[in-house]
Design a protein that fits this description.
heterodimer, A: alpha+beta, 2 domains, 13 helices, B: 5-stranded antiparallel beta sheet, 5 strands, elongated
Chain lengths: ~450, ~120
């Protein structure tokens, strides 16, 4: 019986690269997936593309590819990723050039496009799910509209012989459904098989989160070697349970407990997990131990895929200004509360246009180390954080200024002030009929 | 006793909705959390953090409950001014819930907490 070995080398845009290199070198993989796209990431990429049409792909694309391309070529491992972000075509050219520079002539790179539905959304009557307002009400503040596309485009790229497949906003599990269905000869309307592949994708897509990352809780849940956390891979056959495991000798561990946490991660109704490829039922999934760092997962079933695709909308929604300052010793919390009160009064006095102000108090031992911090003050130190949402950058800066000016105008002993301002990219969603989304694949050869 | 002694948890966000799982270390404690950790109790526990409804889904095969928490205050990940915009730390908040000491469903012995804390489930249930 054929078994496919598929690994995950990144669970978010900034994930560890050395762990992916270990997986590429020692995982004996057929496929290596890099999942690097979150809702906000693609909106930022869209803004980068507006500034420069040659950009808009993952900023770490070149670094990641340089680290793993030669290993994957040597071992015959195909790479599938959504690092194309807002510009898969430009990303494919970047990878082609890297391959040439590294002497990997003949490498075929495919770009999967079609998830950018900005033009399809413009001028049509879609409703924002969260607010019931028309999408058109966002006007010029709309930054990006990307549909979560399924496995089809990526699978087509594999059928064309691609060694590297670069998509944009493909749904995370679809990055796994495409290669698994292609290798195991599953039709994309064989819903139970698609759901099995979706289960694999769901368990692997956050990389280290299934191998002991995001899990440790000293005294309750111990995990050794988190500084050398091994990234996961699955062994998937035509039938039977899938195996979730990791490279031997790496840190972390794969246990039923780590797999159960990941099974439910970002899941609402486990009997109806909506993806572009199927509506998966994970409610009857079993998770059983199968040896050291080996877990069996089985029992996912699927229903026909939804008629509509979810669209992630990003829009500019004002600014956030933030400032922080710390206080120590007896009365630290009182002084922080006084400081917060001063900032709120100052913003009102100056007429700074804020939509919402939030004051938090943080802290353990940042100011004076572990010795003094154990003194019997409750607490020994605190850090005031004031954040406010504003319509203008100027107002956001004023919020940060008022925290910083506590140095000379606020309570005694304030130290370590810091300030930031940022534009808010808010997210919303809508649904688009599947037939309005057309995926294209084109290939370049190094 | 805190829930942390018998179960573990992970939370994830989808916009203004956050899910928080609750998974028992020892499958014999599953009926205990089903009985004691109701959607109503979780809603009350998160009062001030979330104003909307809390839905609970049961997964007996893996000894887990999944809570879906609506109406996170502050507008969810896209608008909130909260330090943890995603609500990822809510898992730790759920594990702070105080519950009675569980009785094991089959032999009515009180739970051995040192075993309940073990994560090494390689040997299986």
């Amino acid at each position: 019986m054929k078994t496919v070995r598929i690994g995950c080398g990144a669970g978010f845009a900034g994930d560890r690269i050395d762990a992916a290199v270990v997986l590429a070198a020692r995982g004996e993989l057929d496929y290596l997936v890099f999942e690097c796209l979150a809702e906000r990431t693609i909106a930022l990429a869209q803004q980068a593309k507006v500034r420069d049409p040659h950009l808009g792909y993952d900023p770490l694309l070149a670094t990641r590819m340089e680290a793993v391309l030669p290993l994957c070529r040597e071992r015959g491992t195909t790479i599938v990723t959504n690092m194309g972000a807002a510009n898969p075509s430009a990303a494919a050219v970047v990878v082609k050039n890297i391959a040439r520079q590294m002497g990997l002539q003949g490498l075929t790179i495919a770009a999967v496009t079609g998830d950018d539905v900005r033009s399809a959304v413009d001028g049509r009557d879609f409703t924002i799910n969260e607010t019931n307002q028309p999408v058109a009400s966002l006007g010029d503040s709309l930054v990006s509209a990307n549909a979560y596309i399924g496995a089809e485009g990526i699978r087509h790229a594999l059928e064309l012989g691609a060694d590297v497949v670069i998509a944009g906003r493909a749904a995370d599990p679809s990055l796994f459904v495409a290669p698994l269905s292609y290798e195991l000869g599953w039709s994309l309307d064989a819903w139970n098989e698609v759901a099995r592949a979706t289960l694999v994708g769901h368990l692997l897509e956050c990389a280290g989160q299934v191998t002991g990352g995001y899990f440790a809780d000293p005294g309750y849940k111990e995990v050794a070697g988190l500084d050398d956390l091994g990234f996961p891979f699955a062994e998937v056959s035509e039938r039977g349970p899938v195996v979730i495991t990791k490279v031997a000798g790496t840190g972390g561990h794969v246990t039923p407990a780590t797999c159960k946490e990941q099974l439910l991660y970002e899941i609402h109704d486990p009997a109806a997990y909506f993806t572009p490829d199927t509506v998966a039922n994970f409610s009857q999934v079993s998770i059983e131990p199968a040896g050291t760092d080996r877990v069996h997962a089985d029992g996912a079933t699927g229903k026909p895929r939804p008629a509509s695709l979810k669209v992630s909308l990003a829009y500019r929604d004002g600014f956030v200004g933030e400032g922080q300052i710390s206080y120590a010793g007896g009365g630290a919390e009182h002084r922080a509360r006084l400081a917060a009160d001063i900032v709120v009064r100052r913003l009102a006095r100056l007429g700074v246009d804020t939509q919402e102000i939030r004051c938090d108090i943080i802290g353990v031992n940042a100011l004076h180390g572990s010795g003094l911090s154990k003194r019997d003050c409750q607490p020994y130190e605190v850090r005031l954080r004031v954040a406010a949402r504003t319509r203008s950058l100027g107002a956001a800066q004023a919020v940060a200024n008022e925290v910083e000016s506590l140095y000379t105008n606020g309570p005694a002993g304030g130290g370590g002030a810091a300030r930031t301002t940022r534009e808010v990219l808010a997210l919303a969603s809508t649904f688009i009929p599947r037939e309005l989304v057309r995926c294209d694949v084109h290939t370049v050869v190094a | 006793m805190k829930l942390r002694a018998v179960a573990h948890s992970r939370s994830g966000d989808k916009g203004t909705i956050i899910n928080v799982s609750l998974i028992v270390f020892d499958p014999r404690h599953y009926p205990f959390i089903v009985r004691h950790v109701t959607a109503e109790r979780v809603k009350a526990h998160f009062a001030g953090l979330a104003t909307g409804e809390v839905l609970r889904y049961e997964l007996p095969r893996i000894g887990a409950l999944n809570f879906v928490v609506h109406g996170i205050t502050g507008g969810g990940v896209t608008r909130t001014l909260a330090l943890d915009a995603h609500g990822k730390s809510l898992s730790s908040a759920l594990l702070e819930m105080e519950v009675d000491e569980p009785l094991l469903a089959d032999d009515q012995e009180s739970v051995d907490l040192s075993r309940g804390r073990s994560t090494d489930s390689q040997e299986g249930p």
